Amino acid sequence: MASKRKVIITCAVTGAIHTPSMSEHLPVTAQQIAQSAIEAAEAGAAVVHLHARDPEDGRPDQSPEAFTPFLQVIKQRSDAVVNITTGGAPTMSIHDRVRPAATWKPELASLNMGSMNFGLFPMLTRYDAQLKHQWERDYLGNKGILFRNTFEDIEHILTTLTEHGTRFEFECYDTAHLYNLKHFHDAGLVKGPLFIQTVFGLMGGIGAHYDDVMHMKRTADRLFGENYRWSVLGAGKNQLPIAAISAALGGHVRVGLEDSLWAGPGELAETNAQQVVAARQIIEGLGLEVARPDEARELLALKG
Ligand SMILES: C[C@H](N)CC(=O)CC(=O)O
Ligand SMILES: [Zn+2]
């Protein structure tokens, strides 16, 4: 019997953009982040993508020591691949953003492949409007966020982390970011297989229509041929529909409360594992198999 294709599920446990006022289920304390990551791994996530927060008010905290307590617990209780953010929050400096990964030298770190205007919900729907106002009130107080990732910034993160054997989840929010990645690949600063996380439905980036998904995939196929592992991230209500398209087309998937607070229309997800289980059901429904952490390490050529 032919072996089934393995699909890597990444779970982005808490992030930096959503605020505790948006959902009581958002992990905030180190203990909550560790527990939620371990549950997500037990549900089938081979990779956990991690940010840290101030336990008092949930604000993003990019100090290396803020990552210590949950990284130790996750390492003790799970063999999931740890992916540490270098995006932090759009308001942070590049030097602050790279420090946790430079300190902890993880197998994987996120790398955002271009600067962009950063918003949250392009298409206001009945249950987003309330969130958007809270977000801008709680978090931004204005609408003018620029998520800065210049070529110099990207090269700084690449050179700082590559020397420790860390590899990257390349966050591409539009086709321009795929060409930026091609630039660094041709310059020999990144080596395949490239783990490309194409992001859909975030205001400031490409939309979440299936044509957008096909456009990003065709562009990546043309630029990188076989030398990449394609994964998708759908923001908000787009999370599972985009995951289903990717799984059907040979790709991998990312879920988690960082990217979407929802389990369905108007229904807040209670756990990260809940979203992992939903993605798993789609993958297994397609006759595919969820990759274990060791299989993900092999597919992504990680240092282990
Ligand atoms: C859309 C996601 N927030 C992308 C992300 O996870 C960025 C990062 O942490 O570096
Ligand atoms: Zn992130």
UniProtKB/TrEMBL annotation:
Pfam families: BKACE (PF05853)
Name of protein: Uncharacterized protein (DUF849 family)
Lineage, uppermost ranks: Bacteria, Pseudomonadati, Pseudomonadota, Alphaproteobacteria, Rhodobacterales
Keyword annotations: Metal-binding, Transferase, Zinc
Keyword Cytoplasm: no
Cofactor(s) needed for function: Zn(2+)
MF term (GO), any: 3-keto-5-aminohexanoate cleavage activity
